[in-house]
Specification:
The complex is a heterodimer. Chain A is mainly alpha-helical. Helix content of chain A is 76%, strand content 0%. In chain A, helix 9 runs antiparallel to helix 11 (238-251). The longest helix of chain A has 31 residues, at 129-159. Chain A is elongated, with a radius of gyration of 55 Å. Chain A starts with a helix and ends with a helix. Chain B is globular. In chain B, helix 3 (24-46) crosses helix 5, helix 5 crosses helix 8 (156-163) and helix 8 packs across helix 9 (167-184). The chains are: A mainly alpha, B mainly alpha. The interface between A and B is large, with 35 and 46 residues.
């Protein structure tokens, strides 16, 4: 096909021509392609005849006119759409609208300035820092009272135990309470510090130390251990301090 | 078609420059020289005379808008046909709802590619009519390349530019098209099977 189409150098064409003269198969091939090209030419002529049915000069003029017409027309798009509203016949309408907006805005300003519009009640909540401080203190007071109450119960039980008989033991409930009080004290510490209840904190610390002692020994205390803890309670006047502190806290109820 | 084939580059360049300066007559001359080639390509893709004429008009409108973008030294005809091909594909996509009989696809090789309705011409040769029927049997890309090569008079390089593929691929597809036609038409071509 390249050979037939002429897209080949003259030297190559000459070589192929010589080969075709001596090769029957290739000669057949070339003849078939020549015939195919004849068909293509024939089809091309038919196509030209079909194209001739169109007025190409008129078409060229029509296309050029369309291009020049589009060129002459103002650009389409949003800009053009905006301008129709600014057309002369719409100007009174626009002026009226603008005036209405200005009058309305002015009236609203006047109404608000004179307070003619009832303002809705403000329902926002405000609490002063002093009040919040008192709340913190009250919570700390109540938690401390609860801690002292429960501690007093445990310590009284221990203090009343008969050491002479050798039967010195914490009940299971008291032992469980001891553990709970130890963990509760951890949460009580920051509350007491925040509320600046330093005296209460010092007494609670002493109780905590006692409970640590109790927690380290088993539920079955030896008489010696029992006496040791009882002497600690007495030595530090723990129960007395608890009663006094409780009284003080109860009286200082907010 | 002969007239279009012999248009020298210098003439086109001069016409383009004049059209760019607003010379209506020069632009009309460009249209007159190239509209049939654009039509054939558009018709090859769209299979409809009126649609193809619409695309021809749109192609020259686009050409006018892009006159400044044309680079000197570039093959004008291939550039123009590339615009026409893109617009034809856009047109096909836009109106494919209307063309229910056609497959919905975007690639040019998958678009239907018929030839002009020359088959009813009583003057046409028997071989030409048989060839026309068998052109429809070719794969779309082969048919498009065959049409551009033999009826649009484009060279391989120009077809490659229009389709955006390599010259080697164009040659290969053209060879396959010729081989297929030769096989299908072997009795008419006097070949021994």
């Amino acid at each position: 096909m390249v050979f037939m189409g002429g897209e080949m150098s003259e030297r190559d064409r000459e070589d192929i021509r010589r080969h075709i003269e001596s090769c029957a198969a290739c000669a057949d091939e070339v003849r078939a392609l020549e015939k195919l090209l004849e068909g293509v030419d024939s089809l091309g002529r038919d196509m030209q005849a079909a194209l001739a049915g169109i007025d190409w000069d008129g078409q060229a003029e029509k296309i050029t006119a369309a291009v020049w017409d589009r060129k002459a027309r103002p650009a389409k798009g949003p800009g053009r759409e905006r301008t129709w509203l600014l057309a002369f016949q719409f100007r009174p309408v626009l002026a009226g609208l603008l005036l209405g907006i200005l009058v309305g805005a002015g009236a609203m300003v006047m109404v608000y300035r004179r307070g003619l519009v009832e303002k809705p009640p403000v329902e926002s909540f405000f609490a002063s820092s002093e009040f919040l401080g008192r709340v913190d203190q009250e919570i700390a007071r109540r938690d401390t009272l609860d801690y002292l109450e429960k501690s007093q119960y445990v310590l009284l039980e221990l203090a009343q135990t008969q050491t002479e008989s050798g039967d010195c033991r914490l009940t299971e409930a008291a032992a469980r309470e001891t553990r709970q009080l130890l963990s509760k004290k951890k949460y009580l510490n920051p509350q007491l510090e925040k509320a600046r209840m330093l005296k209460a904190k010092a007494i609670c610390d002493q109780i905590e130390l006692l409970f640590y002692e109790l927690a380290q020994v088993s539920e079955n205390l030896t008489p010696a251990q029992c006496r040791g803890i009882q002497s600690l309670i007495e030595e530090h006047n723990i129960l007395l301090k608890i009663r006094l502190l409780k009284k003080e806290l109860q009286e200082s109820e907010a | 078609m002969e007239e279009q084939r012999t248009t020298p580059d210098e003439t086109i360049l001069t016409l383009l420059e004049k059209a760019g300066r607003g010379d209506r007559q020069a632009f009309k001359e460009i249209v007159r020289l190239h509209q049939q080639k654009v039509f054939l390509l558009a018709y090859s893709i769209l299979k409809n005379r009126e649609d193809a004429l619409d695309v021809v008009q749109e192609t020259f409108m686009r050409l006018y808008q892009k006159l400044d973008a044309y680079e000197k030294g570039r093959n004008f005809q291939a550039w123009l046909l590339q615009i026409a091909k893109n617009l034809s594909i856009d047109y096909y996509r836009k109106h494919r709802g209307r063309r229910r009989e056609m497959e919905v696809d975007h690639r040019v090789e998958d678009l239907p590619l018929p030839a002009v309705d020359y088959r009813s011409n009583p003057e046409s040769s028997e071989l030409g009519r048989i060839l026309a029927r068998n052109l429809d049997r070719l794969a779309e890309r082969q048919r498009l390349i065959f049409t551009m090569k033999h009826f649009n008079g484009l060279e391989y390089r120009e077809i490659a530019q229009v389709l955006g593929i390599s010259v080697g691929t164009v040659k290969s597809l053209h060879f396959k098209a010729v081989r297929n036609l030769k096989n299908w038409l072997s009795p008419q071509l006097g070949m021994q099977t």
